[in-house]
Amino acid sequence: MSTNSSRVGQLLLQASACISWKQDVEGAVYHLANCLLLLGFMGGSGVYGCFYFFGFLSAGYLCCVLWGWFSACGLDIVLWSFLLAVVCLLQLARLVYRLHEDTLAEEFDLLYKTLCLPLQVPLQTYKEIVHCCEEQVLTLATEQTYAVEGETPINRLSLLLSGRVRVSQDGQFLHYIFPYQFMDSPEWESLQPSEEGVFQVTLTAETSCSYISWPRKSLHLLLTKERYISCLFSALLGYDISEKLYTLNDKLFAKFGLRFDIRLPSLYHVLGPTAADPGPESEKGDEEVCEPAASPLQATPTSLQQTPPSSPPPAATNFPAPPSWARLSRPDSGILGEDSTSLVLEDFEEVSGSESFMDYRSDGEYMR
């Protein structure tokens, strides 16, 4: 080891030093090449940083080729500079190919910037999600139904890209679905992967709509394989369902002037139109749905109504009849006073506390 180091030292010491320095400076091409190389080495990271880096290096080494050919007249300078310039140009071509390969359709690119980029979702992960829906954008014409209540099976998950969709149940408006909201998130969460079910609401396009759709089985396989994507969909679906629930609660607030507990089982049955005057049949239907099991106190007015008016009641029983608050109809004005508000709240409490009133099914519908 010491022998080798001594030989290297002798070569360096015995090398001929510069006898005289050139009085003339190199030409402008040589200085331009060095300036371009200096700017190139100041480049940053990332795709566009690599474009900057290899772009300036390619221009700098090409200037070195010109300097070696016309000024230095050295074959080795020309060959090495040309080789380095070719390597940099190949790197630029590779970057262009990668950018072209990573380019998404306009709809999917806008979806990524709106929904996934704020959550810092990697682009490669987003491509796996898009690949699961086969990169297809589906459309709905005006007044075309996406799902029909009680008929359409729950076999996919869809996300609205543009337009507006109306959600209704039994012909009664519930809420709207706007762009970048899931169209069937409650139905998706209400079923296990091995279960089957049908929609309990009707979804109708109010305008021309476009959406993407994931097949249920393919998406479940992707969520099972990729834990990060599973957590991402859980967060997005949970937020979407909570927004829909708060939309229904805001509708009740606009109607009654107070906010109800969104967990009440009979909440849907008070979501009627505030301006329309319910007819006798609708009032009868509301009474059948909203009236709990009759208590002895509520049975008293019924017996009093069945007594003929010709026979006066005994004096001992001539007391004012208790109000039948359990059969209150919805107000026409859409805003309740303090007394009627307290009665409706008591009605909700009694209905929600009744175990025999409703049963909650796994597909998200309350049934008797």
Automatic annotation (TrEMBL):
How does the entry describe its membrane topology? Multi-pass membrane protein
**Which Pfam families does this one have?**
POPDC1-3 (PF04831)
Q: Provide ranges: composition bias, Low complexity.
A: 296-308
Q: What are the GO BP annotations of this UniProt entry?
A: heart development; regulation of membrane potential; skeletal muscle tissue development; striated muscle cell differentiation
Which spans does this entry mark as compositional bias, Pro residues? Answer: 309-323
Keyword Transferase part of the UniProt annotation? no
Q: Which GO terms describe its molecular function?
A: cAMP binding
Q: Which domain of life is it from?
A: Eukaryota
Q: Where does the UniProt annotation locate this protein?
A: Membrane
Which UniProt keywords are listed? Membrane, Transmembrane, Transmembrane helix
Kindly list the GO CC terms recorded for this protein: sarcolemma
What are the start and end residues of every segment in region (Disordered)? Answer: 275-341
Looking at the record, the residues that make up the POPDC1-3 domain are 26-251
| Stored InterPro entries | cNMP-bd_dom_sf (IPR018490), POPDC1-3 (IPR006916), POPDC1-3_dom (IPR055272)
What's the family?
Belongs to the popeye family.
Q: What is this protein called?
A: Popeye domain cAMP effector 2
User: What is the protein's species of origin?
Assistant: Rhinopithecus bieti (Black snub-nosed monkey)
Q: What is the lineage of its organism?
A: Eukaryota, Metazoa, Chordata, Craniata, Vertebrata
Gene transcribed to yield this protein: POPDC2
